[in-house]
């Protein structure tokens, strides 16, 4: 089952569609407005958002870790379907840094995506691809859930997509 969170910005799509027709002859009819209640099919949305270079879909945590270890460089990353696979937490971002694999929840709230548990304020994104693009430009704060008290906070940008290296 696909998450309902993957709906695109319909108003933006409609305005782009309208703009593409504006240069044509006035004889041509204007396109029909896009209905907010009729989003594209979920499979089509996934194709637009999820890049096979970093999205591995429904694999186990161990299989996904194997993909990261094949790359074996700080900043190797991928996105997999969450073990919980709920509409609230549909995906998990996995990052390899200093020989440790970090599993970071990708949550969905009010049709927007965010990283982490929600205990701290977090930036929201319209698509998972936007999260990946953002953290390819800016380092991601990596928190070791087993060692939170150490105070050590590592940061690492997403550099090496590990989705095309299946070990299963």
Automatic annotation (TrEMBL):
Record-linked InterPro entries: Immunoreceptor_sig_adapters (IPR051751), SH2 (IPR000980), SH2_dom_sf (IPR036860)
Domain SH2: 54-162
Record flagged with keyword Repeat: no
GO cellular component: cytoplasm
Keywords: SH2 domain
Listed GO biological process terms: cell surface receptor protein tyrosine kinase signaling pathway; intracellular signal transduction
Record's protein name: SH2 domain-containing protein
